[in-house]
Amino acid sequence: MNKGYLLAVSLAAATVAFVVIGIVWPVPSAVAYAGRGALLRSSSTPEAAVENLGEDIRTQAWQKAYTGLANRAQFTEPEFVHDLTGYYPSLLTYSTLDKFEVRPLHASGNEAEIELKLQWSTVVGASVSTRNLRVVKNGDRWEPEWPIVKEPIVPPQVIPVNYLRWDVIYRGAGDDWGAQDVEAPHVRIVDMHPVERADGVVILGELLNEDVVPAYVSVTATLLSKNQSPIATEGSFDKISHLLLPKQVTPFLIKFPNVELSEVGSVRMAPLSTLVSASADPVIEIDNEQLHPAPGASLTGQLINQSGQVVNVAHVLGTFYDKSGQVIWIADEYIDRALSPQNPVPFEIHIPEDLARSVSSQRTVIATYSSGGSQ
Amino acid sequence: MSTRMAFLLCGMATVLMQMAFAENGSLRLPKTVEAGNSFSIQSTGSGKATLYIIGPEQVLKRDVQLGETALFPAGSLYNAGHYIVALAAESFTENDSLDVEPLSQPADLSFLARPSRLQVSLQDGITGAVYVFDAYHNLIAEPMPISFELSNPTGTVQKRVVVTRNGAAWTGMDSTAQQGIDKFVARTGGILSTRVVGQVPGDPCGLKMSAREAGKQVQLATDPVRDCNGNAVPDGTIVTFTEAYSGAQSTVDVPLKHGFAEVQMSVHSGAIFSVASGVVLGNQIRWGK
């Protein structure tokens, strides 16, 4: 009894002591994460200078980050901030820097080159961007030079747009019992097959809007065992372009984690389509698409917004085919910057290394979102 | 003695039965009534009673004098179905039934036409189903001929006459080769109901594009895009232009505007341009050397 009491008192005293120590003499990282300071150290080395810059960006201490740059005379602070967060509203505008990595590329007595890898947390997941920074010695301090990329600003102008727009009037509550409602768009799965991957079964396929009206689409799949009992049901979520204009095709990918293909007897597919108001604008050109072989297999290209409307978020979906024309993989990437008219924005979609050798051709589609609703 | 006794008992029983009948009353009512028509129910006996008529969605209650005729004016019973008629007096209850039948004259057609939009040239692609109702919205189960007519703006008319079974008739119609808004009419006994069916063009047919130089770019434009029946494919339909050159590729999804699609793409010597819409492939053009 006495021993237990003594132990309890000792633990309580130790806890109080550690709390007091933590408050009075906090470790620098704790201060930084509490938002009352930065995890900074002296810029006595090129790496430290870039780490300090990364920390300022993480805490959104834009002025401090800007004043620490060696080449700040070449651009203004707002231009520096826009370079990081985007000039037009985009995924980056509403993101925060989750973490960053610093990697020295080479160094001399007065100059060094450092790679700064920024990992942003966006609403659709992580977005990674990499900048190579030149770091110069200024007295006893190192100062990074920011490789500014000035986003071209679209000059004020009027761009006439007369693409088709569809609006829908649905039947009303007071309509006659037999009165027709507007017909849901007719969509068709033109390709579908399951494949086994390390983390489970994946359903790959393509969906065609064979109607003359726009469709909001999604696909649900149910895996059935050999005795036709359901194993699992999953949807395509964002691995699909949800808005399909007439005769447009979207790929879809549905993941079933922790399921083996040998357990599957059949697959029940349920495409869903709903009539929605939509616009045929904006038109996005996918330019200079190139397949890069393994290692680091990827599909790269540029998106060019051919319309006058700024596209805030673009979602690139790549469909990869083998020599026989069968879909072997579907991958996607969100573009974290807005697409302003006529300004090319690069994209890079990664392809699994084991499939890269089998890729013979590809097709890319773009889903776009502009502020004010999905387009 | 025994024979005399038997006659006496029989006579008493008859008198008692007649007395009871006269006191309890009995119902005389039609076995069937047309919906909405007037009818009467007669009772015998004397005294007061309450008459209940209980049926689908309707209950009537009437205080009656036994031995008199209760008149029910037109419109009293209008829902078709089987009704229980109960006469309740203080000392007895008597039950009977009657059927209310729909009027023979149709007054309303519920016409379901599906789909409201479909591609041209589809056999039995349009379905029409009719339910015939009388003025009180009772389903008329008696067979009657329904005339279905599908007419398109060019004047082509498809006609079918189908006799109803259990109040319903249905038919299938072909969509015509011509796009447009068709009128689908169902008619019987001077009553008609109209629906519209949009016939829309099918997949593009013979998709063809041409290319010409436009400064540092090449201007690609399709011919007017039509389906295999010559209908213009509607604006907004996506046409995909693809340029393949030295291991790279560029693609643009362009909606049709004023019947054709056009786009400007970068020029690459030896590039192959192709065009497609949905699952339909068009021609290819090799540019330069």
Structural notes for this entry:
The complex is a heterodimer of chains A (375) and B (289). Chain A has 375 residues and is of the alpha+beta class. Chain A folds into three domains: 28-145, Nuclear Transport Factor 2, Chain: A; 179-276, Immunoglobulin-like; 279-374, Immunoglobulin-like, CATH 2.60.40.10. Chain A is built from six helices and 20 strands. Chain A has helices spanning 2-24, 28-33, 46-58, 62-67, 77-85, 353-356; strands spanning 96-107, 111-122, 125-138, 141-145, 165-166, 187-197, 200-209, 215-225, 230-235, 243-244, 249-257, 264-275, 278-279, 284-292, 298-305, 313-321, 327-335, 345-350, 361-370, 373-374. A four-stranded antiparallel sheet of chain A has the order 1-2-3-4, covered by helices on one side. In chain A, strands 8, 9, 10 and 12 form a four-stranded antiparallel sheet that branches. Chain A is globular, with a radius of gyration of 27 Å. By secondary structure, chain B is mainly beta. Chain B folds into three domains: 2-101, Immunoglobulins (Immunoglobulin-like, Sandwich); 108-200, Sandwich (Immunoglobulin-like), CATH 2.60.40.10; 209-286, Immunoglobulin-like. Helix content of chain B is 8%, strand content 52%. Chain B is built from one helix and 23 strands. Chain B has one helix spanning 2-24; strands at residues 27-28, 32-34, 39-43, 48-55, 58-65, 69-72, 81-88, 93-101, 108-114, 117-119, 126-133, 145-151, 157-163, 168-173, 180-188, 191-200, 209-214, 217-222, 238-245, 248-255, 262-266, 272-277, 280-286. In chain B, the strands form six sheets. Chain B has a five-stranded mixed sheet with strand order 2-8-7-4-5, with no helix packed on it. Chain B has a five-stranded mixed sheet with strand order 10-16-15-12-13, with no helix packed on it. In chain B, strand 22 and strand 23 (280-286) form a beta hairpin. The longest helix of chain B is centred in the N-terminal third of the chain and has 23 residues, at 2-24. Chain B is rod-shaped and about 110 Å long. The termini of chain B are far apart. The chains are: A alpha+beta (375), B mainly beta (289). At the A-B interface, strand 14 and strand 19 of A face strand 9, strand 16, strand 20 and strand 21 of B.
